[in-house]
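So, can you check this one?
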Amino acid sequence: MPGILLLAAGQGRRYRAAGGRTDKLMAAQTEHANRPLFALVLEQAIASRLPVHVVTRPANDGVQALASERGIALTIIESGGMGESIAAGVQATAHWRGWLLQPADMPQITAADYQAVALALETHSQARPYWQGQPGHPVGFGERWRGALCQLHEDKGARALLDHTLILLPGHAGVVVDRDLPALPPADFYAPPHPQ
């Protein structure tokens, strides 16, 4: 069974440069009763019923606390970039049969999104949702990519590994929306209803 790697080891430079005054992943989300951004992301990952593993930095106490409260395993790393974070997470979960790579600042990714990508990995080695021509998340890699994922080190993440085997899944607006900036996304960027 594949699992979800929540990538929470960034430094949030763009967020702070745009006026963010708190840690991006712990920023209160006013449209969700002021709950932290990471709490929303983690909740949907857990609701997918797939294994979940969090990669974060030593200074991210809030992320560590939220994951620990839910019994979610952590890899703690002073990451030099997304590629290094992915490699550390895959090495820590080498027994998984695939990985859904998910930045931890995308609160509109749903449990159903994770389930759709995991299902696609049963017959394909790569899968990701798209929305109106834009590539979204999570990005799924089957177990044959374990070695290549473990060798990543640049800040481009796993982009260079995507090839002709990639299957594109129909997504929704939320699969391309992150919170790199403090401002809220446009009102027409919605989160689909929670799966029953």
